[in-house]
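Quick question, first post here. What does this chain look like in 3D?
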Amino acid sequence: MVFSMQYSTRQATADRWQGWLGFMLAACAWLLVTVSWAKDAPLQVVLQRPNQDVVITAQANLELPLGLRQVLERSLSVAFVHQVVVRKPRWYWADREVSRKERLVRIQYQALTREWRVSVINDYVENGPPQSALHQSVSSLETALALASRVSEWEVASSEQVDGDKDLVLDYRFALDMGLMGRPFQMGAAGSADWSYQVQGSFKVPNNSAPVGDAATSEGLLPLSVPGASR
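> Answer (accepted):
Ran it through. Tokens below.
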């Protein structure tokens, strides 16, 4: 009888420890899945309205396929473009375009210094006059890609352009710009998924100064394209 009571107590204690261990393992697994999802989100966007201007901070998840990585490692320049259109939806007619902005980013490996050069041209206009660029050198390709795929507090529409309009929509697109690559690359890249990277989304612009954040869960988010989709 005594032996039976001791055994039952030990068994109950072991069962409690197994239950707690199972709970902790499940919680850790859930946390790992959550963190992994946030890291792999194709696009994260925060919109703000300081002084009624429209300001965007965005980060795209840019992972280069092998073909693009090899081109960069041969010291050839690769260009990406951030494109933003702010528009006013109209049910009775086509949407009115409030503002359009483009930012061009180039990445190139400098063999002599063994550094990666990131060049940024604001208010880029295709086939327009030459524009000055801001340059930054970093030690790794991963850092260069992180810089190229991010915009921070970028004013894409002024209060004068908005002119008191409410319920605006912002279309954001980040993509590889094949138009700035050499003609041989454009011909060889036709139909290749390695050369058709883009990610995009449409978001409701806040009517006040309160930010709209994390595009992966924001209300008003339209479906995102996935990396590798056609241009």
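The first helix runs from residue 2 to 40.
Residues 46 and 178 are 27 Å apart (CA to CA).
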